[in-house]
Amino acid sequence: MILKREFYQQPTLEVARSLLGKKLIRQHGQQQLIGLIVETEAYIGENDTACHASKGKTQRTEIMFGRAGHAYIYFIYGMHYMFNIVTESEGNPAAVLLRAIQPLNHIDVLKRHRNITEEKSLTNGPAKLCQAYNIDKTLNAWDLCLGKKLWIETNDEHNDYQTETSPRIGINYAEEKDRNAHWRFTMKGNPFLSKR
DNA sequence: GTGAGGATGCACT
DNA sequence: GTGCATCCTCACG
User: Fold this and answer.
1) Hey, what's the torsion of the CAs at A34, A19, A174, A52, to 10 degrees?
2) Nucleotide with smallest C1' distance to residue A55 CA
3) Looking at residue A125, what DSSP letter applies?
4) Which nucleotides of B are covered by protein (CB under 7 A)?
5) Ordered structural domains, chain A, with CATH
6) Which residues numbered 44-63 in chain A sit less than 7 A from strand B, measured from CB?
7) Quick one: pLDDT at residue A127?
8) Higher per-residue confidence, A195 vs A74
């Protein structure tokens, strides 16, 4: 079942935790590339100094101030894309970053997109999974509730896992309270988690 | 297997 | 001009 708007409108920490175990689906020609979400991070509002929206509304962050369930995709370090999902109500900027995925099918396609052969490294990082699933700027602001191009579905399998929390990665510029917040959610023991 | 450093372009003061 | 929610390569031994 495709996740609906109401799911994404929940509190961001709830969405980040609940996205674990869900299936990300990317339409690729006639094929559907499917991956299991195993790692997420929450970025919550204007008081979270790790969140891009803490610097106010700009052209880039505008999407985070909009409706939940849309993709917030930005370009960083001159070569990488990051895929976030907008949460909370309108005017309340927040999002969940997808940091790692476990590939469930079409491994050959992912390898081609990534130009590597090692399965463990295909999608175990936020920029890696974007490259593997061909997610880029053209999907920024895309509505994930449409069930086209890019969306998320519930999953009746993979319900047998434990959730772990830890501080978010790569945000040394943020205030200490935000650096220490355990807003990173991981599926315990999954082999496709990003490093640390 | 681990760590340092470079790549690279765009949004934003 | 600055800095970035990262990844890869290349040393090292």
Assistant:
1) 70
2) B12
3) S
4) 7-13
5) 5-187 (3.10.300.10)
6) 55-56, 58-61
7) 98
8) A74
